[in-house]
Write a structure and sequence with these properties.
572 residues, 17-stranded antiparallel sheet, 8 helices
């Protein structure tokens, strides 16, 4: 990568004018750099632990490491960490997701200063829209952490911590291959006792293939106000806009093997020259904390859109435009209660409301079809954690109870400990359970020829345990080993296979008609097509009584309705 000299003149002028204007407004300051604490991990426990004594499998990317490496985005920072797999679907700026220990992207909870970034519609996070300029450090903990954070924390948590204000004022201009141009700036200034940090970023990439151009527009702001009560008040907010072409898979080398859409819209390098997705995100976060208490509230709004065109095989085109509007609002409070010299008890509660509105227009064969629906979920929760810190033993026991409005309560415990067996050897162990409620689209997506939601889905559950050690046999050598096992139960909603039918090798499908009241509860179950086995029919009926559905909606009012569901029993 080259700097400054390779950056287009128009890009340099645009960024320089923007940032210089900010500098002129605020003028120079000469306050001291705030004290930075680089050696405490805050993600794996409510009570911060020194990094060399944290009782969990954690990794930290510090600000110093970021400045030395100068990655282009957050995924580039995380790609070298063990147990993490970064999936980038194209050039810089394309959809990028993260897996931990082989899990799916929806099983990884991503936080920014403790605020969840997982979208309620799809459950994952696009890391491609995260610049690094406002990042102070990134903490990664592996294993289920629903005991601390609730849903999505099935296989691990990534917490992106933003940096507090400093006296830094700079403009950064970069350019490189594939039409990559990046302009960013940092303005940090003191306003009385308060400290303001403002970080704008603009990035464009042409990409290696046609229709793979991307653009990112991001502004992040943070205001820290000390001496509010006995603590510090912090306000954070940001705007994020992105746009990226979606070329699709490369066509087969043999034209006879290409699809109708590839032949109609593409060329030798790209399946589609028109598919494109974009999105806008805005968030606000207010937090107050002191040594014992933390209170915070946040709200996030996403508006991703997607435009696609594909050939229908009869010489025509199917054109689709989809917009999903999502909102997430939450309030959280925690209290830290040192009740023994070596022990700290943390108690807390949280309330979160997620809402989604989906709209799609599809035109095919001269006919337009409009699909619309909305969905919501409210989740109150209570949590507790006991942290024990002895000279050679550090341990935490956490417990959290979540009660989503559309599912039964979810109890998630976690126990983790670290024992220093010798000056050069520490043993680690952990056990925990996690859960992930189905996303709103997984539950409610209306049926179409390609995909549909399943209102019978239940939360996924996982149980995990791990053992490991950290050894320093020589001052220049370090050994870190972890063995883990994850047992994940899916949320398909299928009843357990009757033992008698399994032993006899009996398979079958039971078609049910269910009556659903205005609250979403099942009020009647009727078998309309038998599997041929009374045992399988009975198992399906019994399971259906425990299902819970979304109520039918008419003119915005919940009403009773009926639904047909097939239960398939198939021996693997």
């Amino acid at each position: 990568m080259a700097h400054c000299a390779l950056t287009p003149v128009r890009l340099a002028s645009r960024a320089a004018l923007c940032v210089l204007a900010l500098l002129m407004v605020f003028g120079p300051t000469h306050a001291e750099e705030p004290t930075r604490v680089e050696d405490a991990v805050v993600t794996g426990t409510y009570d911060p632990f020194p990094v060399d004594r944290v009782p969990t499998n954690a990794s930290i990317v510090t600000r110093r490491a970021i400045e030395l490496r100068r990655p282009l985005d957050v995924p580039e920072m995380l790609g070298d960490l063990s147990g993490l797999n970064v999936l980038r679907f194209g050039a810089l700026g394309s959809l990028t997701t993260l897996q931990i220990r082989g899990s799916g992207a929806t099983d990884v909870l991503v936080l920014q200063d403790g605020r969840p970034l997982n979208q309620p519609s799809v459950g994952n996070v696009d890391f491609a829209t995260m610049p690094v300029d406002y990042v102070d450090r990134v903490e990664v903990v592996r294993g289920p952490y629903s005991a601390l954070y609730g849903g999505y924390a099935m296989s691990g948590v990534v917490n992106i911590l933003t940096r507090p204000g400093s006296d830094k004022r700079e403009i950064r201009l970069e350019g490189g291959g594939q039409g990559t141009s990046i302009a960013s700036g940092t303005l940090s200034t003191k306003l009385g006792k308060a400290r303001l940090e403002l970080v704008p970023t603009w990035r464009t990439v042409n990409g290696a293939r046609p229709n793979s151009q991307s653009e990112l527009r991001n502004v992040f702001a943070r205001l820290d106000v000390p001496d509010v009560g006995k603590g510090t008040l912090s306000l954070r907010g940001g705007l994020n806009g992105s746009s990226v072409g979606v070329p699709g898979p490369e066509p087969a080398a043999d034209p006879a093997l290409r699809t109708a859409s590839q032949l109609t819209l593409g060329n030798n390098l790209v399946s589609s020259t028109v598919d494109r997705q974009s999105g806008n995100e805005v968030f606000g976060h207010v937090e107050w904390s002191d040594e014992r208490f933390l209170v915070r509230a946040w709200t996030s709004a996403w508006a991703p859109t997607f435009h696609s065109e594909f050939a229908d095989g009869f010489g025509g085109l199917t054109v689709s435009d989809t917009t999903t509007r999502q909102y997430s609002t939450a309030f959280e409070a925690r209290a830290r209660l040192p009740h023994l010299k070596e022990s700290v008890l943390t108690l807390g509660g949280m309330w979160q409301h997620d809402a989604m509105g989906y709209g799609s227009t599809s035109t095919a064969f001269g006919t337009s079809t409009l699909t619309q629906f909305s969905s919501t979920r409210t989740t109150p929760s209570l949590c507790a954690e006991e942290a024990l810190v002895l000279p050679r033993l550090q341990a935490t026991l956490g417990m959290r109870y979540d009660r989503p409005s559309d599912f039964p309560g979810q109890l998630s415990p976690r126990l983790q400990a670290r024992f220093e067996a010798a000056d050069w050897l520490a043993l680690r162990g952990a056990w925990g359970r996690g859960y992930r409620a189905p996303t709103l689209l997984e539950l409610d997506f209306p049926p179409d020829p390609f995909v549909s939601g399943n209102p019978n889905l239940l939360p996924q559950r996982s149980t995990s345990y791990e053992l490991g050690f950290d050894a320093l046999p020589h001052r220049t050598a370090r050994v870190r080993f972890t063995w883990f096992n994850d047992d994940v139960k899916d949320g398909s909603g299928t009843p357990p296979y009757p033992a008698a039918a399994r032993a006899d090798g009996v398979e079958g499908t039971v078609d049910l008609v269910l009556e659903i009241d205005a609250s979403g509860a099942v009020t009647a179950v009727r078998v309309v097509s038998s599997s041929g086995s009374a045992v399988l029919d009975t198992a399906a009926e019994r399971a259906a009584w425990s299902w819970r559905f979304r109520p039918g909606m008419r003119d915005g009012v919940a009403v009773s309705w009926s639904v047909c569901r097939a239960v398939v029993f198939r021996l693997e």
